[in-house]
Write a structure and sequence with these properties.
Number of helices: 9
CATH class of the largest domain: Alpha Beta
Oligomer: single chain
Number of strands: 16
CATH superfamily of the largest domain: PPM-type phosphatase domain
Largest sheet: 6 strands, antiparallel
CATH architecture of the largest domain: 4-Layer Sandwich
Strand order of the largest sheet: 3-2-1-6-5-4
């Protein structure tokens, strides 16, 4: 059994040491930020053990490295977690007491050479969390009264335990705060993106137009829009930026803004897509692009004109014979190559019951857990079956069919669709 008072230590000294540790515990518990907590640990080590310098090395589990955000007199140290005295302590979870640093081959004198400091003695110990997880290593340099004693080891071990739990608590709090901030930012981005979607379907005489969007994440890389250019004439747009999440969401919102600005000045599809492509090429990284289709619906002539920058399939349903055709695209996605001419597709004369369908690949590539995809043929079958319904109802029936087909498989891509139906 360990004696109540180590050899050479009086009861009064033991009480004083315990009082200091209790005060340290109170101070560590009061810290609410990591940097002040590290400073408190180092100050406590200097005061409790009585040494010249103290270093707190945090453990980076991902990189398997030890690093210091603060060391008395030294900054910015990072090294593998199996190197040197600190590495041995991290690996074996033991206390290492070295009375003569330069006589120990594990000691690295490079820091001394760089700082002009002379290390004499070293006491190194692990800091572990409440569950035993390694949080870091505490290293004390140069006991002011000689070598580190057994009592110093006892005090330091207790201090290391207190510091380890405090560090674990603080890192958990910071991780939680970072998660909360990320969720807040994502929710804000989602609000902005969803706010950019149309509030209502446009009213165009003789047409029924509806759109719908469901991102896979809190934010998505898809968008659609309705742009009324004149009475009886409306622009219909759908876009899909590579990927899904906050990055593609920002890209597709920029693309939507460009299209809206250009449509307010011209109805020339070549110019609109060509200018958008040039501007996005300047802004986007090489691995980012946007597929986009813009169409103009004209009630006076019952026609629809369109141009597609890499977006497909574009479906045209003819009510007269109940058949679908896939319309040609005009060129590559926006943001890849500059100077591309985007020639509009064939002008469509819409007869009653005809459909013009724009959708993103989230629909036909929606897959079961065995990777079986919904496919274009099933999309066409569902729309043909419900072609007498409204555009909004057809979209709902299609989503229900996709969801049932998936048999519980998660949605991995954004879902966006626009249907233009000629009613009379």
């Amino acid at each position: 059994m360990r004696p109540l008072h180590p050899v050479g230590i009086t009861p009064a000294q033991t009480i004083a040491d315990l009082s200091r540790l209790l005060e340290v515990s109170r101070q560590l518990g009061a810290s609410v930020e990591l940097q002040p907590l590290l400073e408190s640990i180092e100050r406590a080590a200097l005061e409790v053990v009585g040494c010249e310098r103290a270093s707190v090395f945090l453990y980076d589990k991902v990189e398997h490295e030890l690093y210091s955000k603060l060391a008395t007199g030294v900054h910015g140290i990072r090294f593998p977690a199996d190197r040197g005295l600190a590495g041995q302590v991290a690996q074996q979870r033991i206390i290492v007491n070295v009375p003569d640093a330069y006589a120990d081959e594990r000691f690295n004198p490079d820091v001394d050479r760089a700082t002009g400091f002379r290390t004499r003695s070293i006491l190194t110990l692990p800091m572990t969390g409440y569950d035993g997880a390694l949080m870091g290593v505490l290293q004390l340099l140069n006991k002011t009264t000689g070598a580190f004693t057994a009592n110093d080891e006892e005090l330091s071990q207790t201090l290391g335990a207190l510091a380890g739990v405090a560090l674990q608590r603080q890192l958990l709090l910071e991780a939680y705060a970072e998660k909360q901030k990320l969720e807040h930012d994502l929710n804000l981005a989602r609000e902005i993106q969803q706010g950019a979607l149309p509030d209502a379907s446009p009213h165009v005489e003789g047409f029924d137009i509806a759109g719908w969007n469901l991102p896979a994440d809190q934010t998505g890389g898809d968008a659609y829009d309705f742009i009324e250019t004149a009475p009886g004439r409306v622009g219909v747009m759908i876009g899909d930026a590579t990927g899904h999440g906050i990055g593609p969401a920002l890209v597709v919102v920029e693309c939507r803004a460009l299209i809206r600005a250009l449509v307010s000045t011209t109805s020339d599809l070549r110019q609109i897509l060509g200018t958008s492509n040039s501007l996005l090429k300047d802004d986007l990284d090489d691995n980012r692009f946007v597929t986009m289709c813009l169409a103009f619906v004209d009630a006076a002539t019952s026609t629809l004109t369109y141009a597609s920058a890499g977006h497909g399939p574009i479906l045209h349903y003819r009510a007269a014979d109940g058949t679908f055709s896939e319309l040609p695209i005009s060129g590559p996605p926006l943001g890849i190559l500059d100077g591309i001419p985007y020639e509009p597709g064939p002008v469509l004369t819409m007869a009653p019951g005809d459909l013009f369908i724009l959708m993103t690949d989230g629909f036909f590539e929606y897959a079961k857990l065995d990777d079986d995809q919904f496919g274009i043929e099933r999309v066409q079958s569902v729309l043909h079956e419900h072609c007498d319904d409204s555009s909004a109802a057809m979209i709902q029936r299609l989503y229900e069919a996709v969801h049932a087909f998936a048999e519980g498989a998660p949605q991995l891509d954004d879902l966006t669709i626009v249907i233009v139906k000629k009613t009379r």
